Amino acid sequence: MEAHNTDSTKKILLGYFDANLEKLFDKRASERVRALTFNIQAFTTNQQHPKFMEDNLITLLDRCLISITKGSGDEISLAANTIGLMAVTADDRAHELYVESLPVLSRVLNRGSSCSKIIECMTLLAFFGAKDCEETENSMQRIWEFIHKISVSTGNANKHSLSILPAAISAWTFLLASMDGRRLSYKYWRGVISYFFRLLEETDEEALGLAVCEALTLILETDSLEKFSDRCSNINKDEIKEKLKNFILKFREQDHDQNQDYNEELDFIYDVINLFEDDDCPQASINISGHLLTLSTYSQIIQFNYLKRFLGSGFEVHMMGNKLLQNVFDFTPKIHVHYETLWEEPTVTYFVPEARTKKTRQRLFMSPNSAYNKARTQLLNKNRDLTKRGSISEAGE
Fold first, then answer.
1. Does pTM surpass 0.70?
2. CA distance from start to end of the chain
3. How many Å apart are CA 136 and CA 133, to the nearest integer?
């Protein structure tokens, strides 16, 4: 009965996915938005249907890319969000999504208010879909070019650019957290540290200051400062630590109490810098549905925070059931197996003060109404029920 109910649920879910895929071909934007919203809810809660994904992955991707290139407003954001969620759940086909999507997303990156969602989508595609460091670094380059395009310095940036810049820097930092510092190219990231220093000096925006502090702290952990420095300067670790600490102390002195989250994040970065000075690493332990996840580097903490923000309420569901995400954090939830006794033999023990005569034994064991036979009948019925459920045959296999 339980298996039948599960099959019925899967058929119903598959029907919903098929129907919503059809709506993505609809000429009305409202119908396409409704279909994309359904997909996001399903993917976020990790309820995507395996058969649907296998048969329709590229069709769904194509419709989302069309929505991004030809749609507007909410439709672009929802389509980009859908592709990002597909990357999280596509397993071995994530690289296919990466290859098909990256050129299209790069072309539309500068489009209005949806830029942050498109950057987020590119970032997740690279994180889950890039097959090697070169492909990841390629995506990092595209994001870095976008960062420079919207603002050479915050003094020349408009209000819209300032709202996008923290998201772009956080995305770049997230991908850097997945890289081995020794594999980074020497030619792409010259001047990054100086650029971030300039942003810290010029900005009073909380989100931007936090994004830059996270990036610089991660650069410290990569132990590859020479790849992020100017050709003619020799910025050392102590300079970066001093710059970060001074910014955080200055930030504390200002009136930023209206956003406690930023204060706590900056305080944490301050503690991480102190750990680096002691040649130690930050550690964090998080309870995931009763299971302990341990993060032992700042890179892992950056990855955890980014993915948790993206998945929102669906993060724990994915951590418990999404192998791709579990592999990222080397997280294996313990499965509690319930063992059920498959067969029992009845035993009855009597303590009879008088001698056990033949008549006594007959009354205790051979009579149809004896306690022994009653117990035996009950166990036979129980074993028969187990056999019907297939438990005994499965145990034999």
1. yes
2. 22
3. 5
